[in-house]
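help with this record:
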Amino acid sequence: MYQPFLNHLESELTTKFDLRPRAIPAGLELNVSDRGKSPARIQSWSYQCPQLRKIRYTYIDAGASSQIFNCVIYPSYHYDLPLLGLDFLSFGKVKNLVVLDFQPLFQDAAYQQKYIEPLKFLHDRYPDLSQDLEMKFYDSNQYFSKYLLFAKTDVETVSTRLLAAFKDYLDLYWQTIDRAEPLTDPADIQRIVKAQKDYDCYSAERDPASGLFSSYFGHEWSERFLHEFLFEDSAPLAVR
C-alpha cells in the first residue's frame, strides 16, 4: 500500500544526495514472522550523507491485515534543522492513520519562525489531512509542529492526497536543507547533539509501535529493534 511512497523517497535520496550505507545491527535489517493470521515481513534501510547523519526507514508488510511505512531523517549535528518524521499505518484497509511532520528540536519563537512557519502554506493545502485528533502517547507540544499532518483516512485518500502531500513535504525539506548554514560554534553543535539524543530517549519511551513489533516478532527482538536501530541513542540499559 505504501510502496509508492518508499519508491519515491529512495529515488529522491539517491538523486539529491551522495548516500553511503549506514550499518544496521545484525539481525535487525530483516525479519519474517508467521505469527497471527497473516505472515509479516519487516525490512529496514539506513543511509547517511554529509548533510544527513542518519536516514532510516522501515516497511512492514503483513498482507491485507497491516501495511506500515515509517521513516525518520536526522540532519547532521552541524545543522539545527528539524527532523523529518512520518508514520503511515493501515490495518485491514479500514483503519488508516497517517502522520507527517517537520519535527522541531526546539520550541522557541525564533526556531519556529525559521523552520516551522514555512510549512504553513503546505499545511493549508491539505486540510483533510490535518484533523484535530488526540495524541494518546505523545505530548503534541514536544517534537511536533503546529503544521503536522495527522489524520484518519481512507485508502483512496492515501493513494492520492497523502502521496501528493508526502512529495510536497519532501520537496520543502530538501529546500530547507539546501538553504541551511552549518554551525561552527562547538557549543551550538553540542546543543544539537543533546537535542537529538533527547528525541531518541523520549521517543523510545513512548513509541506505541513496540507492542506491534512484539506481537509479530517477539519481545526480545522488538526491544533490540527499538533501542539499537529506531532510537539508537536511547541508552538501552534494559537491553544491555
